[in-house]
Design goal:
The protein is of the alpha/beta class. The chain is built from 17 helices and 14 strands. A hairpin with a 4-residue loop joins strand 5 and strand 6. The two termini are about 35 Å apart.
């Protein structure tokens, strides 16, 4: 691969298009001072991607564009194109000719082109680095910079040598890996932070899901109990409805027959006979007896309700006290309000004063519990005392009801005995009356009995109506708790005969069990199915698992990057040390050639530098800062001149420094030869004898790299195959002339 041509248009003093053809190993560019020779070297830096305006003797982008003269107006853009012969495919692209162009405008915008296609600066740098070419690398040595490698610090000198050895690519890869590692570590911290944030939420949701699962278990059990209970209740109500209707019709028919017979008997007696005092009393006693029986049944229902409330208060009193000063969730407040609303609604529909008082007492207890949970530790003892007082009150009411029930049973036994006694009295009187009177009395008694039985049937109908309402209410409440499962009870398999033969106490026991289970279910979830909570829990757990996997991948990636950086550093260190050995060999040879003896070498050393710690505090606060040492690797140049006791660079003369820097630069170029080398008046400080040595070295270097030499030295010019002369006329524009020695020799012959 070689440089074929360089085209400059509008760049600095080259206002018009100028084309340099580089067909020989050594091309020389000559001309008087100020004609624009060094602008050619800067054009090469420019097109190869140089970003420092200072290295191209400018302060602003506009300084690189032809700014006009008296006769030629200024340009609005500058463009430089360099063309390489790529027939050997040194560049890793499938083109025999590679043209790289850079164009800038006065608005500071910049464009890059590769074979007339727009590309990025990064693409140009990567392409050039593949063949050891850079914008400001060791292969472009401008005027006054030949001595720069000797004047540089050991650290900067190391960077120049790394550049010459083609090791910059490793620094770029290491820097890129460091940026990726920083980004990866930041992503690791973010992922860990996200996992820490959602961990308490997952824990909370898990507890809620456990409650929901428990509630579902209770709900399934409740559904199973409801199926049997409601099926039995439906059979009982259906049978009772039919029985009461049939009994009412039969009694009404018998009453009608008795009234007709009584009318005939009274007609035969010719006198209306009023009921005796005993008969009226018997009717009254039987009426009271019927009322007491209904009251006895109602007391039994009240006792059942109180037993459920006592069980609930005992379970609540034994429950552990929750943590101090806890926050009351909105859901808990909502559940409390809904439960109180439902219980007060039931009390509002009831006509039973004792039941209403019981509900009010339970509501007051639950509100007290809620207030205790808000008050925290100060309200725990008060809540327990209130709960104990409420439990004692419920037990007292239950005991009072039991006592009242016993007294009512005693009264019923007395009334029953009184009724039997009145019946015996009336029977005795009937025997003493005449047949008409006996018939009339019997019919009248039968009428009273039938009327009483009809009244009892009516009362039973009213009670039955309440049972039907309670059945429908039970279905409604069950539907709230278990949903559509409540509708499955008609399909429950149950023999009707065995269901009717079962005592009602068994069904009442089932109802109490259902009530207790309902209280437990409402206490846990309040009837909420919790599907949204379960869904949120599953989504949150899935996100946590995703973050865990992502975190694992990120940590693996970070470890891979650290391993890659370590490998790159090891490769860089190994190739650098190997390159130093090669440079030292060439450096010694060139140095000996230039000075006729002596020795020169590059030596690697480590310099300890102090740096401020990451934990440094503000010095303005008067607090001393901590410092830590780090080792920094650098390069020192060791020389020994023949016949002189000079061993330090600072003791060299200007010419000796020039020869030393040239020997070192040529040695660096020999170790890792770039495709081309630009020398901008590096021979300016040499005398005639050293110029010949310099020319021999240039001649030798041309075997490895294409040389573009900017010079005033005739010895150097004599080694060139083509000379480009640059002149500048009155319009301040650089103009190009060229001479090829081979063509000139043939013409001369």
């Amino acid at each position: 691969m070689r440089v074929k041509s360089l085209e400059i248009s509008g760049f600095k003093s080259f206002a018009r298009k100028s084309i340099f053809e580089f067909d020989t190993p050594i091309s020389a560019i000559v001309g008087p001072n100020g004609s624009g020779k060094s602008n050619v070297a800067e054009a090469l830096r420019f097109v190869l991607g140089e970003q420092s305006l200072k290295s191209m003797r400018g302060k602003r982008t506009e300084d690189l564009i032809w700014n006009g003269s008296k006769s030629v107006e200024r340009q609005n853009r500058a463009k430089v194109t360099i063309t390489f012969d790529n027939r050997d495919h040194t560049f890793p692209i499938d083109y025999n000719e590679v043209a790289i162009a850079r164009e800038i405008h006065r608005d500071a915008s910049s464009e890059y082109f590769l074979n007339d296609s727009s590309v990025r600066l990064k693409d140009i740098i990567e392409l050039l680095s593949s063949v050891n070419i850079g914008a400001s690398g060791h292969h472009i040595i401008s005027q006054g910079e030949a001595d720069r490698i000797l004047n540089s610090s050991p650290r900067d000198r190391r960077e120049m040598i790394e550049d010459a050895l083609g090791l910059k690519i490793y620094h770029w890869k290491i820097a890129e890996s460091e940026r990726k590692l920083i980004k990866t570590e930041e992503n690791v911290r973010q992922s860990e932070s996200l996992r820490r944030e959602i961990a308490p939420h997952i824990k909370f949701l898990k507890k809620q899901v456990e409650k929901i699962e428990q509630a579902r278990s209770f709900r399934d059990e409740l559904a199973s109990l409801y199926n049997e209970y409601l099926k039995r209740e439906e059979i009982y109500l259906s049978y009772t409805r039919t029985t009461l209707h049939k009994e009412k019709n039969e009694l009404e028919a018998e009453l009608k027959t008795a009234e007709e017979g009584l009318a005939r008997a009274e007609s035969m007696r010719g006198v209306n006979h009023q009921d005796s005092k005993e008969s009226a009393e018997l009717l009254r006693v039987r009426g009271e007896l019927g009322n007491m029986r209904r009251e006895h049944t109602e007391l039994g229902r009240k006792q059942g309700r109180l037993e459920g409330m006592i069980e609930y208060e005992e379970r609540r009193l034994s429950a552990p006290v929750e943590s101090e000063n806890k926050m009351i969730p909105v859901e808990e407040s909502k559940n409390l309000a809904e439960n109180l609303y439902e219980e007060l609604g039931k009390a509002e529909r009831s006509e039973d004063l004792s039941y209403i008082r019981g509900v009010i007492s339970a509501v007051r207890a639950r509100v007290g519990q809620f207030l205790s949970s808000i008050r925290g530790d100060a309200g725990v003892a008060e809540r327990n005392d209130n709960a104990k007082r409420e439990l004692e009150k419920l037990r007292d009411e239950h005991s009072a009801l039991s006592k009242a029930q016993g007294e009512l049973e005693n009264s019923m036994n007395k009334l029953d005995a009184r009724a039997k006694e009145l019946e015996r009295v009336l029977e005795s009187k009937r025997a003493e009356t005449t047949d008409a009177e006996r018939i009339s009395f019997e019919l009248r008694s039968k009428k009273q009995e039938l009327t009483l039985r009809l009244s009892m049937v009516h009362d039973r109908n009213e009670y039955f109506a309440r049972e039907e309402v309670a059945f429908k209410e039970e279905i409604r409440e069950g539907g709230i708790l278990i949903g559509r499962l409540i509708q499955d009870y008609p399909n429950f398999a149950l023999d009707e005969g065995s269901a009717l033969a079962e005592p009602r106490s068994e069904q009442e026991a089932r109802r109490k069990k259902i009530e207790r289970l309902k209280i437990r279910l409402e206490d846990i979830m309040g009837g909420d199915a919790g599907s949204d909570v379960v869904k949120e829990y599953e989504e949150t757990v899935a996100r946590d698992e995703f973050l865990a996997k992502e975190l694992e991948d990120l940590k693996s990636s970070a470890e891979s990057l650290r391993k890659l950086m370590q490998e790159l550093n090891e490769t860089l260190d190994g190739q650098f040390k190997e390159g130093i050995l090669k440079i030292n060999k060439q450096f010694s040879e060139f140095f000996t050639l230039m000075f006729g003896g002596g020795s020169a070498s590059l030596q690697v050393f480590y310099e300890k530098k102090k740096k401020r710690s990451d934990t440094d505090l503000n010095l303005e606060e008067g607090i001393p800062t901590e410092e830590e040492e780090e080792a920094e690797e650098g390069i020192e140049v060791a020389i020994s001149l023949p016949h002189k006791k000079i061993r330090g660079l600072q003791m060299l003369s200007g010419g000796e420094r020039a020869l030393t820097s040239i020997a070192l630069l040529f040695a660096m170029s020999q170790v890792n030869p770039p495709p081309f080398l630009v020398l901008d008046e590096t021979d300016a400080a040499l005398d005639e004898a050293n110029s010949k040595k310099y020319g021999d070295m240039v001649q030798n270097l041309s075997k490895y790299s294409q040389l573009i030499v900017i010079t005033h030295n005739r010895e150097t010019m004599s080694r060139a195959g083509v000379i480009y002369g640059i002149t500048m006329s009155a319009d301040a524009i650089s103009k190009l002339l060229s001479i090829k020695f081979e063509e000139a020799t043939q013409i001369a012959k």
